[in-house]
Amino acid sequence: MNERLFLVCLLFVSCCLSVAQAADSANKKTPLSFENDVRKILKVHCLHCHGENGEKEGNLDLRLKRFMVKGGDSGAAIVPGKSDQSELITRVVAQEMPPEGKHMPEAEIEILKQWIDQGAHTLRPEPEKIGADYIAPDDLAFWSFQPVKNSPVPQVKQPKLVRQPVDAFLLAKLEEKKLSFSSQASKTSLARRAFYDLIGLPPQPEELKQYLEDKSPDAYEKLIDRLLASKHYGERWGRHWLDVAGYADSEGYNNKDRERLWAFRYRDYVIRAFNEDKPYDQFLREQLAGDEMIKPPYKNLSPEDLEKLVATGFLRMAPDGTGSNPAEKEVAKNQVVTDTIDIVSSSVLGMTVACAQCHDHKYDPIPQNDYYRFRAIFEPALDWKSWRTPASRRISIMSDADRKIANELEAEAKKVLGERTALVNQFIDRTLERELLDVPEDKRDLTRTAYKTTGKKRTKEQVALLKNYPRINRLSAGSLYLYDRTLHEQSGKAATKAKQLAKELVEKISKETLSRIPEAQKKIALAAKKTAEKKRTPEQKKLIAEFPGLLVSVSNLEKFDPKGAAQVQHFKDEAKRLTELKTQGILNKLNDKVAKIREKKPKEEFVRVLTEVPGKVPKTFFFNRGDFEQPKHELLPAGLSVVKSNLKKPIEIPAQNNDLQTSGRRLAYAKYITNGEHPLTARVFVNRVWLHHFGKGIVASPTDFGKLGIPPTHLELLDWLAHDFVSNGWKIKRLHKMLMTSTAYMQSSQRSADYDVIDPDNLLYGRMPVRRLEAETIRDSVIAVTGKLKTDLYGEPVPVKEDEVGQIVVGIANVDSAGRQKKAIKMDDRKFRRSVYITVSRSKPLAVLDMFDAPKMEPNCEKRSSSTVAPQSLLMMNSGFMVEHSTYFAERLQKTHAGNKQEQVKLAWMLAFGKVPTADEVKQSVEFIVSQIPQFNTTKASSGKTPEQLALATFCQALLSSNEFLYVD
């Protein structure tokens, strides 16, 4: 289920429970309270006009009970004990209030009535004064805003089952229900589970063999260590972070969806950071404020400084249409800022801060002022009044030394271009004079002058004159090649004339010579012409000496006909002269020379970053109702008030750090949320790691730790994990190992009827859930089992294109100006790269990934969904991708075990499922392959494959389409 839809359903259930609780309270004579029952209703429907941000329509403030009793211009809003006399009830029943949006539901009106009739009770004395951003004590006390506690590890009845402290927390709750952990998963299941969790790839037979043959007690732990050290670990876990960061290789926002150049450097930074086990606090600080950690101007950067700068690409992942000339530019600019705040708050804080853009958050204690204070942290870099488009924000990483070399080579290239320009001018003049020969002599000077006069300065007479001679009128540097065609034709004609004339003259002399030879000797003469000089008879030699014209040819024509030979040479010279007059060949050589010079230039590359303009700090204003055209009061940067209120030592974010050339706001905020005391940072991250290992988070709504989010199933465990994570240096790989070597993680996924009755949703973690592979892992696994997977790390994204049937596939687009498909460009082995390197286009998602719920970056992916729909099966059966890779899979089996179907099946099973098949499974598989062969005997395979090869490929496709391949238990 979509997470947002789930939260709406949760809200509906919550309302129903509120009604039920109210009815129960009424039955038991337990009074309702303003804090627990009423305030949340008013916050949703009323406070945005009656209390928030100083808004008091009709001078009525509904934030406290005593304000309601005091009332406004219309008198008291409530009369305790008398709902029928309360103006508030009258107005909401008549649906006069709220005046806009949805009216208050009957169930909530009933709660208000009961509360008033019971005397309008409060749980505690109300404060004498409250500010515009008043946060009620109950909101301050909400669990996620409280400091992280170092919860004690519970004592359990079965201590032998506790491998890691997390086991004790889970087991304690299981034992309360008289339950325990399930039995341990098999060694092969653990291996496949660990491979997919840590590197997102299936184990190869040799890797699996190494683990299965290791009988030492720590064999599994050593496997975990090997996987954590794998270069593929960063690709797998980097992809998880790229989801919440909203990574994409296109700008999105509108239909233009322009290519997002250089974004891949941020993707590579993330992968590298996970591989290097960069501490999470450092990881966050670099992404939020890497540019503020180094001094501008950003030139001649060390690798360490460049990495910090690249990290700020995190704040450039929001859709950004400002470079595509959108219709409403100001709206587009503000949307970038809004989406960036949404990405940061949801991914790092696990809060829906964006809901407070137009009014106070209806459910969480986030005043609208807080939203703009939070925005003020980022506005010095995202200054919407002095906006910088994507192209103007990029930074060159070329060093001064390389730039010097590049400039020198460019100067050399420009020198050649200068020579080319001079030649072009000569060629134009020469061509003009040639074309003027076709103009009457009395008009040549006038026509030449008209051509030489620039367009704006030509008289009407000159314009009219040039229209009569279009070949002269269109003469330009860009059209010289058109005149080359004429020269080519003329040159060809002259060359043909020379050839024909020479042939005619040779034939004439030859014929005349033969006519003078006596008839009796003509046969000897003809034979002499065809015989080589050394083989001629004395008689033939004598005849040739008497009639030398017998040996006439094109090459010796001058000897027999000097005048004719001169005429032939004239045509040859003319052909050569005309050829030499052609400009394009000469210009192309100069173009090639320029290209070769420029090829030597160091390539200038860029990074997509977020930076501030030194010395420029814009003011941030509160937008009335979220409308940037209605700015009100100025606000200074700050974190969330509710968090600040709960800290022992609140940290202020200075408006300007005078020690930096930048404002220092983001750096101060990054340090604040990673100081180990912030209640959300560590909780949110360890919860997300838990989610990816156990299928769901301890908080099942990973980007909403607020009141609309799903409460934690094990709050003490979440706090213990967060505290332990921070205390041990924010090390992510250490966290992985602790979780994966726990009894809870190593459980079987086998369901139990008893467990299903007591804990049907497995909220107590009494077994491991069966999980479907994610979109990328499915594609990568298919390629991996074929042996084709290209394992290079990093680099530019692999292109995608639309195929003949409109599906998006890996490939190089080749279309004409009308968008029609041209001849396909053959793709190299980049098509076998891991999915994390495939272009992430917001408007053109790769079909095989999109079908299996690849995330939509709008603006980021808060939590992946996992659907099961019929088109997924159709794709596995019919897509070109699956057919192609099933063939590769079969070829791998045949290459390894030629002609041995039993061994082919065993290898296929190991590759696809990570385990050895049973004898019965081998038997059934071989029978299936054999049964398929006749299906192809009568079909002439266009692929050139034999029926046996096609049958094996069909079997391979069946394995790749099976649930055992697509799911991990």
From TrEMBL:
A GO molecular-function descriptor: electron transfer activity
Annotated signal peptide: 1-22
Residues annotated as domain DUF1549: 165-380
Domain DUF1553 residue range list: 665-928
Entry coiled-coil feature ranges: none
InterPro entries: Cyt_c-like_dom_sf, Cyt_c_Planctomycete-type, DUF1549, DUF1553
Pfam families (alphabetical): PSCyt1, PSCyt2, PSD1
SUPFAM superfamilies: Cytochrome c (SSF46626)
Domain Cytochrome C Planctomycete-type: 46-101
PROSITE patterns: PROKAR_LIPOPROTEIN (PS51257)
Keywords: Signal
PANTHER family on file: CYCLOINULO-OLIGOSACCHARIDE FRUCTANOTRANSFERASE-RELATED (PTHR35889), F-BOX DOMAIN-CONTAINING PROTEIN (PTHR35889:SF3)
Protein name as catalogued: Planctomycete cytochrome C
Organism: Gimesia aquarii
